[in-house]
């Protein structure tokens, strides 16, 4: 039976942030392994493939007109969706009082990966086109469809219905969701800056010990790995945050407790 006695009266940004940090803190090893396997390694492969396309393509074209742009964009959306699908399973298992397990997260979410990738690509392209014409429509789409992948994976709604379901759950809460998005962007900027500072420090320390050609090769490889790790880390934090948002909205609107949500994976 669905529990409704403790349903919160309003969307609480602080509760969502605490839940997100708690999930990461309790499951950092499993979530880290998922991020490595499902995001870091695929991102490295994606960047290598995109680099090859850049070498083969015309360098004079606008970035948006190059195969590299579309490969990295669409591929990146798909990778993020796969990681998000696995992490939402682990997050709900944890919130239900069970231990998140690597194998269970992968096996349970695996059948949903293609659909999740389609949803993520559709959401991000819709946001991009909406932002190009007018900023506000892009933001509205992003807030309305923010948890479409989580809806798809947990509720098995199918691709088309996941958008409407996400819009229903986020209705009247999009201002708070926009605030959370701004917090995430601020954290992301700090992490990007830290990665850059550390990378520059390492490069500077090696500059006087390694010959220039060898240093250039090592710098290129390290930047590729660092970029992939940075992107995957941000995707992981964001995905866990989306899982926390999904739980908050389901509890707020329907009184559904995490134990009930996690039971769909049994």
Task: Give the helices and strands, then pairings.
Blueprint: H1 13-26, H2 28-56, H3 67-95, H4 102-109, H5 113-133, H6 135-144, H7 148-155, H8 159-170, H9 174-206, H10 212-254, H11 258-262
Helix pairs in contact: 1-10, 2-3, 2-10, 3-4, 3-5, 3-7, 3-10, 5-6, 5-7, 5-8, 6-9, 7-8, 9-10
Description:
This protein has 266 residues and is mainly α. It has one domain (13-265). It is built from eleven helices and no strands. The chain has helices spanning 13-26, 28-56, 67-95, 102-109, 113-133, 135-144, 148-155, 159-170, 174-206, 212-254, 258-262. α1 (13-26) packs across α10 (212-254). The longest helix is centred in the last third of the chain and has 43 residues, at 212-254.
First-last Cα distance: 16 Å
Mean pLDDT score, rounded?
86
- Rg from Cα: 20 Å
Q: What is the helical fraction, as a range of percent?
A: over 70%
- Number of structurally distinct domains: 1
Quote the beta fraction.
under 5%
* Major pleated sheet: none
Quaternary class:
single chain
Give the count of helical stretches: 11
Order of helices and strands: HHHHHHHHHHH
Q: How many β strands by DSSP?
A: 0
Task: Identify low-pLDDT runs.
Answer: 1-8, 55-62
Helix/strand-derived class? mainly alpha
Coarse morphology: globular
Short description:
The chain is mainly α and 266 residues long. The protein is built from eleven helices and no strands. It has helices spanning 13-26, 28-56, 67-95, 102-109, 113-133, 135-144, 148-155, 159-170, 174-206, 212-254, 258-262.
